[in-house]
Amino acid sequence: MTFDVITIFPDFFNSMLEHGLLKRAIAGGQASIQLHDLRDFTEDRHRTVDDRPFGGGPGMVFKPDPVFKAVAALEAGLPGRRLPVILLTPQGRLFTQTVAEELMRQDRLVLICGRYEGVDERIAEHVATDEISIGDYVLSGGELPAALIMESVVRLLPGVLGNEESAPQDSFTTRQAGCREFRHGLLDFPHYTRPAEFQGWKVPEVLLSGNHEEIRRWRRQRALEKTWRRRPDLLAGFPLSEEDRQWLDTLQREGCEPVAISGLGEQKL
Description:
Distance between the termini: 40 Å
Shape: elongated
Number of domains: 2
Low-confidence stretches: 175-183, 261-269
Strand order of the largest sheet: 2-1-6-5-8
CATH topology of the largest domain: Alpha/beta knot
Strand content: 15-25%
Number of helices: 7
Radius of gyration: 23 Å
Order of helices and strands: EHEEEHEHEEHEHEEEEHH
Number of strands: 12
C-alpha cells in the first residue's frame, strides 16, 4: 500500500518513519510512504502556497494551483485512473476504526495536509475525493492527522503486526456474525504483568490461577464493565450473549452507572 503525503513540512514525518509500525511496514514491503513538498509545485521565486482569503478575515488559505498540480503529477503515470485523495480537515467525516478498515482496502492513498486557515474550497470540491477529521478540535495542520491515519491503517495490513491475532482483538474492530457485520463494541479488558504485587497492589488472583475458562470469563466481564461505565453507546446493537446480559444486569443492580449516557436515551441491553 502506498501513501502519498502532500505537505509543506515533509521533515515533520522523518522521526516517525524511523520507528515503530511505520518503519516495520516500510522495511517489510507492506507499505510505501512518499512525501511530497507542496512548495515544489509552485512557480514563483518565493514558492508561495497560500494567500489572503477573498472577502477578508484572519489567516491565510492554501492556493488551489499547487495542490492541483501536485495531485496531477501523482496521477500522470496512471492514465484513466483517479487516485483516492483525502483532504484532512475539521469539516470532514470523523475518522474511526471503520474508516481505517475501509481505507486499508485501497492500494494507494493521497493525503493532503492543510495548514493555516484552511484550503481554497475548489480543492475540496474538485481534487479531494474524501474529507476526514480526526476529532472535534483544531490543530495547526494536517501532518499529525496524516500520521495518525497512516499508523492506524498500516497496522491492519497483513504481516505488519508481530502477532496476527492482535488487530482482530482491538477495540472497535469489525467482526462477522453469520452474514452480519458488527462493531467489536467492547473496550479492552485490564492487562497485568510482573511483578504479581507492586507497592501493595496485587494482580487479580484469577489471572494467576491457570484456569483458562475463568480467565476468559473474567476478561469478558471486565471488558463489559469498562464499556458500560465509559462508552455505553458502543453496546447499542452489539450482539450480547445471555451470559453478557446477566453480568450487565448484575452491574446495574449493584449501582454501576455510566459516567455519561449522552444521547442514548432509554437503552435496553
